[in-house]
Amino acid sequence: MNRLVKIISREDIFPEYRNSPIDLLLQYHNLGLPFENVTNAQMLIGMCMDNRKYLRIPDNFAFIIRTGGANLRYSEFKISYAISVGEVSSLALIAHNRCGMVNIIERKNQFVQGLIDRAGWDRISAEEHFRQYSPMFEIGNEIDFLLSEVNRLRLRYPKILMAPLYYNVDDNLLYLVKEGRNT
Fold first, then answer.
1. DSSP codes, 70-118
2. Strand 43-47 to 62-66 pairing
3. Which of 38, 107, 156, 177 could join 60 via S-S bond, C-beta 3.0 to 4.6 A?
4. Exposure string (b/e) for 76-104, b if CB count within 10 Å is 16 or more?
């Protein structure tokens, strides 16, 4: 956890994000900044589909893409749309602790049985579905995946300001993630 910076004051926000939509996101969510009237999306947020996470932001503030593990590998057209048509210039990618996309193999039996019991699948189809798709959505360590995904997206969209953030489901706060090897 030494790579995480808890945001409890505006001074905790890294200088590269100050006076940007990422700064506002952190202030709205963590610091209780009063909402302003927002008419157009200021940024794009990529985050996990996990139901334990809720962002405190004004209506219309952000486009939000929610996918398992905040894995945006299969959402690039949506990202491109938010940038080109939605005219956003900032992206926050948010991972969180205790993510279900970490070590998916441990949940194989639950996954397969859930499809059988709740969706009416047969065992062979459910197992094949898991076998085919689980490698695409396994993220490994949350922070390592987050940083690799932010780096991948920075190469794809070099003019977009990107911030790796971490949502702690225990305190419902966003943390900045220190980048680099010596953190």
1. G--TT-HHHHHHHHHTS---EEEEEEESS-TTTTGGGGHHHHHHHHHHH
2. parallel
3. 38
4. eebbeebbeebebebbbbbbbbebbbbeb
- d(C-alpha 154, C-alpha 52), whole Å: 28
Token pair 């990529």: residue: 46
The secondary element (H helix, E strand) that includes residue 162 is strand 161-168
21 SS3 class:
helix
For 43, the token pair is 């940024």
* pTM over cut 0.90: yes
Q: Which residue ranges make up each domain of the chain?
A: 4-100+140-177, 103-138
Tell me the CATH number for domain 4-100+140-177. 3.40.1050.10
Cβ-based neighbour number of residue 61 at 10 Å:
20
Confidence at residue 96, expressed as pLDDT on a 0 to 100 scale: 93
